[in-house]
Amino acid sequence: MEGEFVLKVTEFVLSKMAERKEVGSVIKQLLQMVGEHFGLYHIALVEKQKRMTSFTITYEYCGQGCPVKRNHVLNFTQEEWQQSLKFLKEDMMYYESGEAAGNDKILSSVNRSTGGAFCIALLEHQGEKAAALLFKYKEAGHIFSEEEKMSFAMARQLVNLYLLPVRNYETDRMELQRVKNYDMVTGLMKYESFLQVAEGTYRNDETDAVYAIVYSDINNFKYVNEYYGYLAGDDILRKFEQVLLSASPLQLVATRLFSDYFISLVKITNFTTEQMLVAMLEQQNRRFAEALLKIYPDAKVSVASGIAFIKDNSISILNYVDCANIARKRLKKNFGATCLVYDESMEAQQKKEIEITSQAEAALFLGEFYFELQPKINLDSNTVIGAEALVRWKQSNGKKWLPDEFIPVFEKNGFITRLDFMVYTEVCRYLRERIKKGQSIVPISVNVSRMHFETDDFVERVIRLVDSYAVPHNYLEFEITESVFIDHLEKTRVAIRRLREAGFLVSMDDFGSGYSSLNLLKELDFDVLKLDKDFLASGTLDKKESVIISNIIKMAKQMDIKVLCEGVETQEQASFLAQADCDLVQGYYYGKPMQIEVFDDLLGEDFGKMF
Ligand code: C2E
Ligand code: MG
Ligand code: MG
Questions:
Q1: 509: Cβ below 6 Å to ligand 1?
Q2: Whether 167 and 200 share a structural domain
Q3: Is the pTM of this model over 0.85?
Q4: Do residues 164 and 242 share a domain?
Q5: What's residue 1's pLDDT?
Q6: Residue 438 Rama label (left phi>0; alpha psi -120 to 50; beta)
Q7: Which residue of 410, 533, 571, 573 sits with most ligand 1 atoms within 8 Å of its CB, as the best mutation to test the pocket?
Q8: What is the pLDDT of residues 552-566, one digit of tens each?
């Protein structure tokens, strides 16, 4: 019966789609039904490729004797297709003689044999005639019946209006999925996928192999972006991805968390030890940095990797990622090491840092921070000629934190600049109070965090503050530690000059504690050189130390710089320093940092008054 087959085909397609069968297989089955029913030689669905100018046979039915060429890319271009379209006036065209004027090119590309009768059905995609169905008989001279015409037209409709749109929607969704699951810059899988794959890998491994999570960060990456541009930045990210996945066969999967943070899963096989793994990663990071130095010489890129060994397969991967990250953060950028293995003490430290950070704001609000004063003594006159203000933190529950515990944390999160200004304010308030009461005052020194040099208005803020308390500038001294001079030479030079021009005193703190260079003394103008307490730390002075100290004092004097020796704890040290012509001392021997009232009493009595 006419129309019966059309109905059957339609029903078939609709039912398969209702069952959510994969579209591609439904298209294939549809072509097969039509092909077999009419004894066709070949049916091909030709489609223009997305974002490309070429065409491909995406699905086909090959009848008896017809060679199969799966995913055959056709060698005609967009222009040739457009040319052919001019001759296809209707959506369904029948060529019973097997010849088609103007369509030779497209036909010869698709054709598996020339000369047979055929029908071309044009399909639309996104408003463009970008696909065609070709129904072909082997022999020429075939007369197309009404049933054939109806069936081919229905097949066209089903593919055109229904199957291809569903298929395209699905491929778009898959593409979206790909964008969602993979990082577009490096091609690495995204973090969530990585977690799943990596965790599955070590959990399903029943051998004795040991795994580790490596958390890496590219130092100075921001600088590359700013200095060489984002393309260079992307280039570095891709290069690092190649290092991660190809340099060592031990690295299994990797992800880029964000920016320049990479995480990978590494496997230690029978032939490798933990130490060997660390050595291999060290070498990998170093080589990467060396290679980049050649391409981006000004960037001084390096890699810091924290490593956490997976000791217990039942613990979530997130825990190990955190541990590796903690180890990474402990790595100091400038000291050469590029890898650090996580251990439990780091976790305690991490917890402490979190506690400190989370309570800082409230502590400032509740007035838990205050300062103590440690006297500075003039060795000639044995009088107190000043004091250093040292910050203290006592929580309302009685818990005390040491400056060495909280200051490094506040330097990292920036809170130190507010804390310093709180100390400066309290010191000004203290001095104003004594001036108001007609009491004598001595210069008080305060410490300056390196963070202040990240801004340009530090000196102006200081001047505004001190003036608001009407404290004479020469009663305030700013202690800047040596390493700041080295890291920010230009900015500190400017700041020191402006502070001194404004009448404040400036000292270089902790001289000799780091990579101090005597050249610094020449380059910078400051009032006091504070010798680090480590020079005296051993308790007894050996010959070498005494020679060094005496010579630094001598040199500084020649440059009109006063020398203060920190950490004086014994009578013996004090007399050595007096002999070496040291001007000033500070240390437990003379007085530990003390409460303000205690210091005030000291000013009046023990050491005699200066003013
Ligand atoms: P610093 O500026 O070098 O301060 C001297 C440190 O040596 C103080 O430690 C002081 O208590 C200690 N000290 C003094 N005499 C002796 C001694 O004879 N023997 C020994 N062993 N130690 C002595 P403190 O108060 O724990 O402060 C440590 C560091 O924290 C300071 O070193 C300074 O760098 C920083 N700091 C303290 N207060 C502030 C502040 O308000 N702001 C900033 N940014 N840093 C501060
Ligand atoms: Mg100091
Ligand atoms: Mg010091």
A1: yes
A2: no
A3: no
A4: no
A5: 61
A6: left
A7: 533
A8: 999 898 888 999 999
